[in-house]
Design goal:
Helices cover 78% and strands 0% of the residues. It is mainly alpha-helical.
């Protein structure tokens, strides 16, 4: 809800800035072609061509930005699910082992999930970069518990081998999740978004409409849409952002509280 309200506020502010800017432009720089400058037709041809070109290039930049942030979000979601599923599989496979190693492995798997839910996830939600050690400490403890046991039967040997395989899956998924949490959209794309948005508004200012209210509506709609687009990309840039991003649902489902 907070993200939605923030987006609405940004849209309103952007539209208001567009309206004030158009008003200032109209008062300070009246249209020269209305008073004997270029012909009205030539001026509209030029501004129309410029608007089309700026619009096309800006749409490409917006598309690249959305693809960039959405792919990172999708990768974070897939890695989180794989990590939680691997932990749950380790927990289930441990039931084939004797009581002592079973309890130790299951306790370490649950501790790993609890660490991700209570320590790493809040950091990811607030955009705090995860340390390099991160989940390696609980993963190391889980790996030590899983590899310290020597199976004595065929069933136990199969279960132990499957657990080791799952540990590799968890390891890779943890790396992917941390990478998604720490990655951000390239700064060059932000430069393109800001520059493209500014040029789009300027080309809208260049158009001359006899009905001032209609011109004002077009500019306010354009600036509001650009403000919403910027907010959307900013929010999606952190796939785990609080209130709008991915939640620790896979870990909670695999290891319910209590």
């Amino acid at each position: 809800m907070a993200v939605v309200l923030t987006s609405l506020v940004v849209v309103v502010i952007a539209a208001a800035i567009g309206a004030l800017s158009l008003h200032a432009r109209t008062r300070l720089f009246p249209d020269a072609h209305r008073h004997g400058g270029e012909s009205s037709k030539d001026w509209h041809d030029i501004t129309g061509y410029a608007t089309t070109m700026v619009g096309v290039f800006y749409a490409l930049i917006v598309g690249l930005s959305l693809v960039s942030v959405w792919e990172n979000r999708d990768a974070g979601a897939q890695d989180s699910r794989a990590e939680a599923a691997g932990l749950h599989e380790v927990y289930l496979l441990a039931t084939s082992l004797p009581p002592a190693p079973r309890r130790q492995i299951q306790a370490e798997a649950a501790a790993y999930a609890h660490y991700v839910e209570t320590v790493e996830w809040p950091q990811m939600q607030h955009g705090v970069p995860l340390p390099e050690t991160g989940c390696w400490t609980p993963l190391t403890s889980l790996r030590a518990a899983a590899t310290s046991y020597q199976p004595t039967t065929t069933a136990q040997n199969l279960a132990a081998s499957a657990i080791v395989t799952q540990l590799g899956t968890i390891d890779a998924a943890c790396i992917g999740r941390q990478s998604a949490a720490n990655s951000r959209m390239p700064a060059l794309l932000w430069v393109g978004l800001i520059l493209g948005g500014t040029l789009s508004v300027l080309t809208a200012f260049a158009h001359s409409m006899e009905w001032h209210v209609r011109h004002l509506t077009v500019v306010m709609s354009l600036t509001g849409l650009i403000g919403f687009t910027m907010t959307l990309i900013y929010v999606l840039d952190n796939p785990f952002i609080q209130g709008f991003g991915l939640g620790p649902g896979p870990f909670v489902a695999a290891f319910p509280p209590g």
